[in-house]
Amino acid sequence: MEYFDLVESFISINGEGKKAGRLALFLRLKGCNLTCSYCDTKWANEKKAKAIHLSTPEIVKLVQDSGMELVTLTGGEPLLQEDIGALIGGILSLPKVELEIETNGSMPIKIFKERDRRLSMTMDYKLPSSNMEEEMCLENMEYIKPWDVIKFVIGSREDLNRAKEVIERFDLCEKAIVYFSPVFGAIDPEEIVEFMKEHQMNQVRFQIQIHKVVWNPDKTGV
Q: How far is CA 220 from CA 35, 40, 124, 127, 199, in A?
């Protein structure tokens, strides 16, 4: 039987993406293959991070008992888990549940190309300020769905210019929902909005992480 290291689970509002503002059960799995400069969950990626070792049926029961109809599987990087398909299938065996996977853009999603709206991806494209752009799995652009989110986390003017290039290269606004989100404290949000206006980026959406407004930006479990 497959097991997963769960570093935390909690119910909160979804802080970003197309499901922002909705209540969700968050399941944070341990470990990540990237070291982004602005990462706000580094503690969950350390080998010494405390975790509960749970099987797929145990996690499915956790979801069922929560009463939540939206589950966000996050990390770390959840798609690093060898048996993640079994966990996804187990969660989606609950008929009313929608599952969102937050993925860093480095892991292939081809295996999930046959899926409906109950399984969505919120996928990052790492920009220059992250120091991780070279790790992006570009073939993923072929397998995103119209109900998926492509998220550009913006920390600088260079990031804005690069995001525009990537959006145009892959015609992303025609394939998925595209968001710009500022690195908290690194760039004035107004600069992002002015850039969007300047370049008439009509289909790009701007957002601020809601949970960092409602609670202290460094607070965990929210």
A: 19, 9, 21, 25, 36
